[in-house]
From TrEMBL:
This is Olfactory receptor 2W6. Coiled coil: none annotated. SUPFAM superfamilies: Family A G protein-coupled receptor-like. GO terms for molecular function: G protein-coupled receptor activity; olfactory receptor activity. It is a multi-pass membrane protein. InterPro entries: GPCR_Rhodpsn, GPCR_Rhodpsn_7TM, Olfact_rcpt. Pfam families: 7tm_4 (PF13853). The gene is LOC106546088. Keywords: Cell membrane, G-protein coupled receptor, Membrane, Olfaction, Receptor, Sensory transduction, Transducer, Transmembrane, Transmembrane helix. It is found in: Cell membrane.
Length: 305
């Protein structure tokens, strides 16, 4: 009985965070709080504008507002805990809450991946099949696409959490990161995880690379059609699709590093540095990139003001 109790003794993990120096922690608290507020307000502005302005109630902006909702949910699942830990100078997180954070992060990441695929398909129809576009991408199709993204991704991610919960954690409980990451938590398991790691790698490769292949194929057809347009229409198409591709690149780059590229023993610090980018920076930049050069959003803001 004692041996079995010790074998599953870990009840919480310790997130090492970015630094142990108190002054820098307080500085980071202020910076992360500002980033969090700007991210929520920026993405909330997108949702409000799309709902308030009739000219923004198109499929492209509908899916963009869905993407903004994903970013709000994601930063709310990570940043408030980071702020609390920085303020309290305590990186402890319970095993249950760690699993919940992993599930929410992975599920929302899956929703975002699928939304990127839907947005690429939407742009393909709008540019390559303009006459059929209003029929193929009507209100019903928009709702079906968004519902599929929000339902299927969380269901698939249950597999990841089941794999993690089936492991025993009895050894080190320190995670060299700012949030709970599935690969790092799995490395802390006492049992042999090679089969589970291969299984998760296979599913992750399919979930990540499948939509990415679809996205790149769609934009390949889009590029072919855009090059045949007149200069005025070509510029607008490049501007819209360019914003999409920048956001997709910022999203996929870190994910491919964390979940697909094989790791070495010295990769922990690199994982933490990359986590800073996709946890703090990417959700903020998404709203900025989509709205900064978008004249429709500029007009909608001016109209409301």
């Amino acid at each position: 009985m004692t041996e079995a109790k010790n074998f599953t003794s870990v009840k919480e993990f310790i997130l090492l965070g970015l630094t142990s120096q108190r002054k820098i922690q307080l500085l980071l608290f202020g910076v992360i709080l500002i980033i969090y507020l700007l991210t929520v307000l920026g993405n909330l502005l997108i949702i409000v504008l799309v709902q308030a302005d009739v000219k923004l109630q198109t499929p492209m902006y509908y899916f963009l507002s869905q993407l903004a909702g994903v970013d709000i949910c994601y930063v709310t699942s990570t940043m408030p805990l980071m702020l609390t830990q920085l303020l309290a100078e305590d990186g402890a997180i319970s095993l249950a809450f760690c699993m919940i954070q992993i599930y929410i992060a992975v599920a929302l990441g899956g929703v975002e991946i699928l939304l990127f695929g839907v947005m690429a398909y939407d742009r393909y129809l709008a540019i390559c099949r303009p006459l059929l576009y209003p029929v193929l991408m009507d209100k019903r199709c928009q709702l079906q696409c968004s519902s599929t993204c929000w339902i299927s991704a969380p269901l698939v991610c249950v597999i990841y959490i089941v794999c993690l919960l089936c492991q025993n954690y009895c050894g080190p409980n320190q995670i060299n990161n700012i949030i709970c990451e599935m690969p790092m938590v799995l490395r802390l398991a006492c049992s042999d995880t090679s089969i589970i790691e291969d299984f998760i790698f296979g599913i992750g490769s399919f979930v990540l690379l499948g939509p990415l292949t679809f996205i790149l194929t769609s934009y390949g057809f889009i590029l072919h059609s855009v090059l045949q347009m007149k200069s005025s229409g070509r510029l607008k198409a490049f501007s819209t699709c360019g914003s999409h591709l920048i956001v997709i690149s910022m999203f996929y780059g870190p994910l491919l590093w964390v979940y697909i590229i094989p790791k070495t023993d010295t990769a922990a610090d690199h994982d933490k540095q990359i986590a800073i980018f996709y946890v703090l920076i990417t959700p903020l930049l998404n709203s900025v990139i989509y709205t900064l050069r978008n004249k429709d959003f500029h007009r909608a803001v001016a109209k409301i003001l």
